[in-house]
Design brief:
The complex is a heterotrimer of chains A (244), B (271) and C (335).
Chain A lengths: L4 E9 L5 E10 L4 E5 L6 H8 L6 E6 L2 E2 L5 H7 E4 L3 H4 L5 H11 L4 H14 L15 H13 L5 E5 L7 H12 L4 E6 L2 H7 L2 E6 L2 E7 H6 L1 H6 L6 H7 L1
Parallel strand pairs in A: 3-8, 3-9, 6-7, 7-8
Antiparallel strand pairs in A: 1-2, 1-4, 4-5, 9-10
Chain B lengths: L1 H17 L15 H17 L6 H16 L4 H10 L2 H7 L1 H5 L3 E6 L2 E6 H24 L4 H10 L4 H31 L6 H32 L16 H25 L1
Antiparallel strand pairs in B: 1-2
Chain C lengths: L9 H25 L4 H16 L2 E3 L7 E3 L3 H8 L1 H19 L7 H24 L5 H30 L6 H33 L16 H25 L6 H4 L16 H13 L11 H38 L1
Helix pairs in contact in C: 1-4, 1-5, 2-4, 3-4, 3-5, 4-5, 5-6, 6-7, 7-8
The chains are: A alpha/beta (244), B mainly alpha (271), C mainly alpha (335).
Chain lengths: 244, 271, 335
């Protein structure tokens, strides 16, 4: 069975020469929920961009059996949806409807199908009936939910999220956890919050200095307090209690 | 730059305080098609502007139109008049050149009163009156129409696609940039410890503007990534969501009747 | 400076709207062909930048109490090219009108021409004429300053032209012109200095953006600024005195307020043939001349009736609407 994401010895350096990613090799199965954890500057965001074909480096990345090449980017991106770090960048149209419809329209769907997809996506993220609102009138939590809707409407098999819990208060963070736990797609979530990672992921990938340090079940990996501290991380409360 | 912070803060407060919050309410007026409202607003403005240079009383009659629209639309009048006052200074100054330059004598009769004045003053009142009426019209248009709908309407009225796309982006990111500018100004004000001379003020202003510029460019690059991530490859697709309904025709008919009725029947009497 | 509806006549407004629409239409068609998809968000966000930048007011150097703000057309033209810049600035002007009521609906044509199309193209071509093919910081500096001042002046000069063609204002053309040219000279100077300084900042921080636009390094040294101000001051003095001498009635307004010469009769009626011609046209255009029936008592009562009647109508509408709204609220709360 094809894997969702296959990364084979992928490396990338910035234009000024600094190495961002070194020999990344990673396999993710369909349905897995992966937390990409690591200190700031480890290369998490860069790796997520690479998975959607925004970064060309050495090595191969294969999304659902399709190897990323300059000719098939559109196909790749209809399979893997990216949620960027800042929802303000993701919501660039005057109304929510236009934003959520943007993806399906680019996929060539007809107006009726697009309308359907928009309604379903907004319902799924808990924003039914908000289609006519302007993004700048939404709260931070609503903006985050809306940005996920813009990706959901394309019905991708894989969704990547870059620090989705950033600048969310506890209530909105809980809403987000519920939302993500209700999705059946393959998820790859980069985050700096270990508690958040523990709440949504079943697999953890630790990245530091552009390299994969360790991959494995979330509970096992994140309970290893020595390893976590070595890479600038901490054990989430959920697993710390069990340890003690 | 001493005035800079004060002016900027006033400007930002004034603009933020009102921007399009009323457009998201609901009322019979809000539900009318954006194209119809826009065309009527333009025609109405043209008719009011075309009234003679010294007409004053007819303007009161014409004011009924936008006034009714505002009331039916549930827009608070106090806010409207406050806003008109805020944007009036330039027109007021130019209106006051009337009495300054046109000193031909004129007798005005109004009801039981009459008094001596100059044509210049009549021109002044006329300009101010026209300003108020046309402002009422413009505000009644934009406070009862969501901007995105207005843009969609303009697109259907043959405004070039790229201009409409541009205005969509502009509207979306306007408030974000105003906030960024506000933060930068506040940071500058917090660090100001005295006068530093015109040349240095210019340098600082340029650095502020420059950093805002660079932030804008960085944001644009990220937005580009977001667009491509959702499959955008250059062809901008939209769905048409505007339809003309019976109530739009009714509104158009009533407005047309009002505008031209006034012009044909009332104007010749009032002058 | 934003033109208002009320200072225009319908023919002038219609004419400028047609010119602006036609011009913009052509430019948009060209832009659609040359623009790459990655430029779209850039244009949008820079439009928002211009908007925000215009809100930052600066104290004008020689005139205490007055403040000016950056227009940005020339900066944008230099960085984006004149066509994209024209589209961006026009979008700013339209949104300013629609959302902030800066300038009226009918004045959009004038405003787009005065502050968008003319400054963008005049500024760009002047800048290129001075800097293309050559290098050196002085050239870039002079090019940008010249472009800003001339571009803004060109737009500013159109305002009195449009006003006098409309015939609504009583200000004599020459007075208006001299005032606009004078004020915008200062504004243009400040705009030029800021534009150069921003370009210098960009050259330092993001040279890739301005690579083709800036042929040389820009340095804003004290000597350069002083020399510039001196040169422009001399040009201004020479130009203004020329203007003043060729238009004798331009300075007569100052005689109108001479309290020390009570016997002095101000020369107010303008013998200018243009204004007379416009007056005649205005008279022909409107069905009834504006001030013929005042003075008769019947007309006085009809206008009284008109005003009072309208006020009463509006009051009734307001009362009924408020009453209905309260009723509606009461009904919904009962449920």
């Amino acid at each position: 069975m094809t894997k969702a994401i296959q990364i084979e010895k992928f490396s990338y350096s910035y234009p000024d020469g600094t190495k961002a990613l070194s020999d990344i090799t990673l396999d993710i199965d369909h349905g897995q929920r992966v937390a990409l954890i690591g200190p700031n500057g480890a290369g998490k965001s860069t790796l997520l961009l690479a998975m959607a074909g925004f970064i060309r480096g050495a090595g191969r990345i294969i999304i659902d059996g399709l190897e990323i090449a300059s000719g098939n980017l559109k196909q790749v991106r209809s399979c893997i949806g990216c949620c960027l770090e800042n929802p303000e960048d993701q919501l660039f149209m005057p109304t929510l409807f236009d934003d959520v419809a943007f993806g399906p329209l680019n996929m060539g769907l007809d107006p009726e199908q697009v309308r359907q997809r928009v309604a379903v996506a907004l319902e799924k993220v808990g924003l039914p009936g908000m289609a006519e609102r302007a993004p700048h009138h939404l709260s931070a939590g609503q903006k985050r939910a809306a940005s996920i809707a813009t990706v959901l409407s394309m019905s991708p098999k894989i969704i990547t999220l870059d620090e989705p819990d950033g600048s969310l208060d506890p209530r909105h963070r809980d809403n987000l956890v519920r939302l993500l736990n209700g999705l059946h797609q393959t998820l790859v979530i980069a985050t700096c919050s270990m508690d958040f990672a523990a709440a949504v992921a079943d697999t953890a990938v630790v990245i530091d200095g552009g390299r994969v340090i360790v991959v494995g079940p979330a509970e096992k990996i994140m309970s290893d307090s020595k390893m976590m501290t070595n890479h600038g991380l901490e054990v989430p409360r959920k697993f710390a209690n069990e340890q003690a | 730059m001493g005035c800079c912070d004060v002016f900027a803060q006033k400007a930002i407060k004034m603009h933020h305080a009102y921007i399009d919050k009323f457009a998201y309410q609901d009322s019979p007026i809000h539900r009318i098609d954006a194209r119809v409202k826009f065309i009527i607003a333009v025609v109405f403005t043209a008719v009011v502007i075309s009234l003679p240079r010294t007409s004053v009383s007819i303007l009161f009659c014409y004011a009924i139109g936008p006034f009714t629209v505002l009331v039916l639309g549930g827009i608070p009048l106090r806010f409207v008049f406050k806003h008109i006052l805020l944007v009036s200074p330039f027109v007021l100054v130019l209106a006051l050149t009337g009495p300054l330059y046109d000193k031909r004598a004129e007798t005005v009769v109004f009801g039981p009163w009459d008094w001596q004045t100059t044509v210049g003053w009549l021109r002044c009142y006329s300009i101010i009156g026209k300003f108020v009426v046309t402002m009422l019209t413009l505000i009644s248009l934009v406070s009862t129409t969501r901007f995105a709908e207005l843009l969609a309407g303009l697109r259907r009225l043959a405004v070039p696609k790229i201009l409409v796309i541009q205005m969509g982006f502009l509207y979306r990111y306007l408030f974000l940039l105003i906030d960024s500018a506000h933060h930068i100004i506040r940071a500058r004000v917090a660090r100001a410890i005295g006068k530093i001379g015109f040349r240095n003020e210019t340098r600082v202003a340029a650095a502020m503007l420059g950093s805002l510029f660079v932030r804008s460019i960085d944001a644009a690059e990220r937005i580009n990534v977001a667009m491509q991530a959702r499959g955008f490859e250059g062809h901008w697709r939209t769905i048409n969501r505007l339809t003309i309904r019976g109530r739009d025709w009714v509104f158009a008919a009533v407005s047309a009747a009002f505008i031209f009725g006034m012009y044909v029947f009332v104007k010749p009497i009032l002058g | 400076m934003h033109m208002a509806n009320e200072l225009l006549s319908v023919p002038v407004a219609g004419g400028t709207l047609a010119v602006a629409a036609g011009g913009l239409g052509l430019i948009c068609r060209k832009v659609s062909r040359i623009v790459t998809s990655d430029k779209l968000p850039l244009m949008g966000v820079l439009g928002a930048f211009i908007f925000a930048a215009q809100m930052v007011n600066f104290q004008l150097p020689a005139m205490p109490g007055t403040s000016g703000h950056m227009v940005g057309s020339v900066l944008l033209s230099i960085v984006l090219g004149p066509h994209l810049a024209a589209v961006v600035i026009s979008s700013v002007i339209i949104v300013q009108c629609l959302i902030f009521q800066d300038g009226g609906l009918l004045a959009l044509g004038c405003n787009i021409i005065n502050m968008g199309l003319v400054p963008c193209y005049v500024g760009y071509f002047l800048y290129r004429a001075v800097t293309v093919g050559k290098s050196g910081s002085m050239r870039t500096y002079v090019g940008a300053m010249l472009a800003c001042v001339v571009a803004l002046e060109a737009g500013a000069i159109l305002v009195p032209v449009e006003a006098v063609l409309s015939g609504v204002l009583a200000v004599p053309f020459s007075t208006f012109l001299v005032t606009m040219v004078g004020v915008h000279f200062l504004v243009g100077l400040v705009e030029g200095l800021i534009t150069v300084a921003v370009l210098a900042y960009l050259q330092q921080v993001r040279p890739d953006l301005v690579l083709e636009a800036l042929p040389g390094r820009i340095r804003l040294s004290r000597r350069t600024v002083l020399v510039t101000l001196l040169v422009f001051a001399m040009v201004a003095a020479a130009g203004l005195s020329l203007l003043a001498s060729s238009m004798p009635d331009g300075l007569e307004w100052s005689y109108a307020e001479r309290p020390d010469q009570p016997g002095f009769k101000p020369i107010i009626t303008n013998e200018n043939t243009t204004i007379a011609a416009v007056d005649k046209m205005q008279g022909k255009y409107t069905p009834l001349p504006g001030y013929s029936i005042r003075g008769s008592s019947s007309a006085g009562w009809t206008s009284f009736a008109g005003v009072v009647g309208s006020a009463l109508t509006m009051a009734v509408i307001w009362v009924v609407a408020t009453f209905l709204r309260r009723r509606q609220l009461k009904c919904t709360t009962r449920i």
